Amino acid sequence: MINKAIIEMPPRFAGHPPIAPLGAPASRRPTDAWPGATGVAEDMRRHGHWMREEAEKRIGRWYPRMKITGAMIEGRGALAGETPALPGPISSP
Question: What SS3 class is residue 79?
């Protein structure tokens, strides 16, 4: 399904305006040109925003907001943006 969304959908909707743009500048209207897959990308952005808002409403109470500090990151390389060391090469049987 992900491959279909990445490979097949953008060309199918290339050049089409989004159904419902989110946060588009006032100067940009759905009737303006939306080159390439920018229209479908705007729809995906809107859908992602909606999904995040719904998740926040439904399960947000179980995930309190917190600020990540330097002390929390210390010793946890992945949080600091470091790439974890990978194990040696995988040998085929």
Answer: coil
Mean pLDDT of 71-81: 74
Q: How far is CA 68 from CA 21, 53, 65, in A?
A: 32, 22, 10
In this prediction the pTM is: 0.55
CA neighbor of 14 nearest in space, from 30, 32, 29, 34: 34
- For 13-38, the pLDDT digits (tens) are 888 888 875 655 544 565 677 888 88
Question: In whole angstroms, what is the distance from residue 20 CA to residue 25 CA?
Answer: 13
Residues near 73 by beta carbon (within 8 Å), at least 6 away in sequence: 79, 80
Domain ranges of the chain: 1-15+36-68
Structural tokens at position 31? 């009737």
- Residues with Cβ within 8 Å of 15's Cβ and at least 6 positions away in sequence, in order, are 33, 34, 35, 36, 39
pLDDT of residue 58: 95
